[in-house]
Write a structure and sequence with these properties.
Layout: H1 9-19, E1 29-31, H2 32-41, H3 52-62, E2 69-71, H4 72-82, H5 85-88, H6 104-109, H7 117-120, H8 132-135, H9 154-157
Antiparallel strand pairs: 1-2
Helix pairs in contact: 2-3, 3-4
């Protein structure tokens, strides 16, 4: 392939999609997975006149029998079969963000205000988890038996009484 400055918009699109998702890719050949991504991202697949199956059939038709990839020339041949050159020129792969979808069921199950019993103890008033303190019984190392209500009063009981002055 030519240096990046001399590449046409179509060659640049081919190279971008050829290296997408593969750190070892050289950009000289395109895998079937990336061919499908190219067709989806460029709007080639419309679900009516051109489907994912059509795109896969064209890929299989233009690639060599024992190969899993297509070269740039085979790529041009595949585009001519689909007649979509202008849709692909200058395009890059689209990176999608994955987001969690909030559903009423999940919201109900994760609402900490509705928790009861020991599960309720794992969260503070704001609904945030207490971490390990909420899962493990912390040992009281104060020296008193658990449940003893007069903790800290021993020192007051054993203080020496003030001595009275002799008369």
């Amino acid at each position: 392939m030519l240096p990046s400055a001399v590449l046409t918009a179509l060659e640049e699109a081919f190279r971008r999609f050829a290296v997408h998702g593969d750190t070892r890719a050289t950009g000289r050949d395109l895998h079937g997975k990336n061919w499908s991504k190219l067709c989806k991202d460029c709007g080639v697949i419309d679900g009516k006149s051109i489907t994912l199956t059509d795109v896969d059939i064209v890929f299989s038709k233009v690639k060599n029998k024992s190969s899993r990839t297509i070269t740039y020339n085979q790529f041009r041949e595949a585009l001519s079969e689909l007649e979509i050159f202008k849709m692909v020129e200058g395009k890059s792969p689209i990176y999608l963000e994955s987001r969690a979808v909030a559903s009423p069921t999940v919201s109900r199950l994760t609402d900490t205000t509705k928790f009861t019993g020991s599960h309720k103890e794992r969260f503070d008033e704001t609904g945030r988890g207490k971490g390990k303190a909420g899962r493990v019984d912390l040992v009281d190392k104060s020296g008193y038996v658990s449940g003893y209500k007069h903790a800290g009063t021993y020192e007051k009981k054993v203080q020496p009484k003030p001595q009275q002055k002799p008369m």
